[in-house]
What we know:
- By secondary structure, this protein is of the alpha/beta class.
- The chain is 39% helix and 13% strand.
- It has 18 helices and 11 strands.
- It is elongated, with a radius of gyration of 25 Å.
- It starts with 8 loop residues before the first strand and ends in an 11-residue tail after the last helix.
- The mean pLDDT is 94.
Amino acid sequence: MPAALEGIRVLDLSSVILGPMAAQYLGDMGADVIKVESPEGDITRSIGPRRHEGMGALFLANNRNKRSVVLDLKDPAARAKLRAMVARSDVLLHSIRAPAAARLGLSWEALSAVNPRLVLCHVTGFAEGGPYADRPAYDDIIQALSGLAMLQTVAAGEPRYVPSIICDKITAVHAALAIALALFHRERSGRGQEVKVPMLETLVAFNAAEHLGGHIFEPPLGEMGYAPVRQGLRRPFRTADGWICLLPYTDPHWKRFFEVAGRADLAGDPEWATLAGRQRNLDRIWAQVAELLRARRTEEWLAELLAADIPVAAVNDLEDLLDDPQLAATGFWEMHAHPSEGMLRLPASALGLSATPPSVRRLPPRLGEHTQEVLREFGLADTDDARG
């Protein structure tokens, strides 16, 4: 079956996680993604376990469905080759700060003059026009500024970073969506456009979904923050032998939970039988839940609560995911034989498109593996120069 973005050519000049992950999403959907790297390569090539230098685990996880081309953009000849590639491409994605990008000829004005149908996506730390615009930004910086690190105070007693490169990854999803929307607009209008996706603004909007709270009104009708999170009430609970995640949500859920727990008397308590009542007594009700859950083993709770159709789950370790029955049944983990790195375990795309399914067509490339192949496709002269 053809993929949704088959025939679309993407020049990925980004590095680390945000841009490469966004480009990988496009590659999964069929785009021909050309990863343009410096002679040193993406820094993630040197991060994580590896069988060979330049093929670290972090790079392998975020760069499938791409071809690698080495161009030293400090060299005017390499920049000329890039401009020639831009003229015959659909998307250029980069994460270079605006002043440096302009010096390299990567501004919208320069690139749209070469190709007016181009979609130029610039992923940045901060939106232009503000005092932070030219600052460097990585995931930790955005976690701190967006309020995400302070939210962890509830559990840790002090600000902590979420143990995931969550800001990069959330922004990557937004960048891939924005590029797809710009391509859709181009199909209608014939015109390309510049797309800017800033990390801070993306994460603040993401957090505001529940944490804007009473400040969605002006003047405010309450504090910011989603009460179950800010009060530390929404968390895994101890059982007699481990941990469990329980989230009764509706009135019927709560009624059935108390019945399963042997406290049918609480199911009829007017303070806890309705959402309004529970909102007034969040600390008391979750303290009661915590006490009840300690009385039985995790497997007992899972069996009874799932039978009662109550939202519940075991708390997995990362290693548990490798043998999770849901992931095994849906073929989530795919094994691929890489020509130099041996067998690789890669996650399948979770997007289920019936007519244009995503797929893994290319495994993560070695540095510069496709330089000559790609340059020939663009009609550029062969060269043995590592700079392209």
